[in-house]
């Protein structure tokens, strides 16, 4: 039963023994030139307003690390994850963000680049960051160990947080859908209402998780300098 349940996340479309489900990850590239093709409408204006708000917030978090275009990396990360999260809510569309192979491929290179930049260009600050100010001498070795472990597990926590949240909602929606054939007919309307509410909740989770991974990546970037 559990294997069948989790099989909803398996790539199932194959051509010449190659899975093409992952191509849905890059469908967002088709919508990038839309602003140049059409007259801006209210949806486009609202999206630009959201991106401007994110730009200002990321610029504030980066502080001294900010340079022209630096927030574009994290805004692109937010847009990429948000699009794939929402795409997975549609029927028969592969949810790429529910796989660690994608989420870890996003978080690990980002974290590794931040760490390499910090240790190569500003190693004194990186050493200082391992020991909070006012730490007693006897606790310093333990604080270094704790800070080192917390830094190492950062890409894993970013990836697992995104994947687990996407898997949990999809599993719950699948379980409720499978109940449609076993519950009495007069309860179908309640099941549909629950599914609608859960879909709204999943839409909120898709937005929140996109924001979380972008804001945490920005904070990690601001710590290395």
TrEMBL record:
The chain crosses the membrane at residues 20-39, 72-94, 100-120, 127-146, 188-216. This is ATP synthase subunit a. One of its GO terms (cellular component) is proton-transporting ATP synthase complex. F-type ATPases have 2 components, CF(1) - the catalytic core - and CF(0) - the membrane proton channel. CF(1) has five subunits: alpha(3), beta(3), gamma(1), delta(1), epsilon(1). CF(0) has three main subunits: a, b and c. Keywords: ATP synthesis, CF(0), Hydrogen ion transport, Ion transport, Membrane, Mitochondrion, Transmembrane, Transmembrane helix, Transport. It comes from Samia ricini. Gene3D superfamilies: ATP synthase, F0 complex, subunit A. Pfam families: ATP-synt_A (PF00119). The gene is ATP6. Belongs to the ATPase A chain family. It comes from the Eukaryota. The lineage of its organism: Eukaryota, Metazoa, Ecdysozoa, Arthropoda, Hexapoda.
